[in-house]
Design goal:
- By secondary structure, the chain is an alpha/beta fold.
- The chain has one domain: Alpha-Beta Barrel (TIM Barrel).
- 48% of the residues lie in helices and 11% in strands.
- The chain contains 16 helices and nine strands.
- A seven-stranded parallel sheet has the order 1-4-5-6-7-8-9, sandwiched between helices. Strands 2-3 form a two-stranded antiparallel ribbon.
- β6, α13 and β7 form a beta-alpha-beta unit.
- 50% of the residues are buried.
- It binds coproporphyrinogen III (CP3).
- The site of coproporphyrinogen III has 23 residues, from loops.
Length: 341
């Protein structure tokens, strides 16, 4: 087994002793950091993802600058649809990334294929290998993928929003949706296995758009595929699942067998800890980082005090937002690291 200077997060995920609550933040590498913006000013986003030196540099920035207990490999969930054959555009100030020629019909689905991670996504493996080498055992490295439903939502819609077309497809042509979800799931399993062989220590599955589905749809079009991914990955690394907006089903979701479930800020952390027998991750509202330092520490304290002891990883309820004051993020991390029950 690999040796780390700081293996707190892995110990919590394994259920062993930990002296304090580990902390990392979704989107901890990003535009709120001036050091990120300095590199981003010179390269476009996808070039950064596809250049291992740049991806590994921005992956390690938050470890150096804000002192988190884990790194997360710099990439995006939408590189999987790209590897499956779609064209991905990440443009400045255009309301987020876009997938061109979204998939709407059965013949559209003929345009995509199961991603071959070793070829189509080899740059992610290279970025992971270089990052593991550069981290040199300081903290564990998290790999990730979008959940099949969240990826399908972008592939059908073409962009973020309310995903009305993707939802319509679930009603109109459930068989077609399942064919697409099958291809995405196979792509994701291969991709995450490749990330594990390249050296990630933990996997997180982002189901950011779980919350737009009804409970029945979530079960049929999201949960079953997530469970299949967890079943296939568990032997390689601990798995964290983030079903954003599906707090009504936390107990059912915990049955997917993941080692941890990450929750958004709309559920009290003690309720999440009651519903989920595994480790619970979360759940500070990223918006609180725009409030006063007092408010930030008060809410961090509330979460740390109410979370299930020994099975909590501190995080936000969603990603750090652009424009978040860096000093607030630093104050938060310092507070969490100094907190003792
Ligand atoms: O967390 C990290 O620090 C690792 C890197 C990471 C990014 N995207 C970098 C990124 C991760 C884990 C993601 C996941 C991701 N991407 C999700 C799931 C998690 C979530 O936040 O809900 C989703 C839905 C996406 C799709 C995506 N990519 C959106 C909606 C956007 C635009 C919004 C934004 O913040 O700009 C992106 C672009 C993106 N992904 C950026 C970064 C740092 C900003 C790109 C830039 O520098 O211009």
């Amino acid at each position: 087994m690999k040796k780390f200077e700081n293996d707190l997060i892995l110990r919590v995920l394994r259920g062993s002793e930990s002296e304090r609550t580990p902390v990392w933040l979704m989107r901890q590498a990003g535009r709120y950091l001036p050091e990120y913006r300095a590199i981003r000013a010179k390269y476009d986003f996808l070039t950064m993802c596809k250049t291992p030196e740049l991806a590994s540099e921005v992956t390690i920035q938050p470890v150096d600058i804000i002192g988190v207990d884990a790194a997360i490999i710099f990439s995006d969930i939408l590189v999987v649809p790209e590897a499956m054959g779609m064209k991905l555009l990440v443009e400045e100030g255009r309301g987020g990334p876009r997938l061109l020629d979204p998939l709407r019909t059965s013949s559209d689905i003929g345009r995509v294929h199961v991603a071959q991670a070793d070829d189509d996504l080899s740059y992610v493996g290279q970025a992971i290998k270089l990052t593991v080498k550069r981290l040199n055992g300081r903290v564990p490295l998290i790999g990730f993928s979008g959940a099949p439903w969240t990826l399908m939502a972008y592939m059908v819609e073409g962009r973020g929003g309310d995903f009305a077309r993707a939802r319509a497809l679930l009603y109109e042509e459930p068989g077609l949706a399942h064919r697409l979800l099958r291809m995405i799931t196979d792509s994701v399993i291969g991709y995450l296995k490749m990330q594990c062989s390249a050296g990630v220590d933990i996997i997180q599955i982002f189901d950011t758009w779980a919350g737009v589905l009804s409970e029945e749809q979530y079960e049929e079009f999201s949960f079953v595929y997530i469970k299949e991914i967890v079943d296939n990955l568990k032997a390689y690394a601990p798995v964290i699942v983030f079903p954003k907006g599906m707090n009504r089903l936390l107990r059912e979701i915990s049955h997917c067998g993941a080692d941890a479930v990450s929750v958004d800020w709309t559920v009290p952390i003690d309720v999440a800890g009651f519903e989920i027998p595994q480790v619970v991750q979360g759940n500070l509202d990223p918006a609180v980082l725009f409030a006063s330092k007092d408010a930030i520490l008060q809410h961090a304290n509330r979460i740390l005090s109410a979370a299930p002891r020994g099975r909590h990883i501190f995080n936000l309820g969603h990603g750090v937002m652009p424009g978040t004051p860096v000093e607030n993020v630093k104050a938060l991390i310092e507070f969490v690291r100094d907190f003792h029950h």
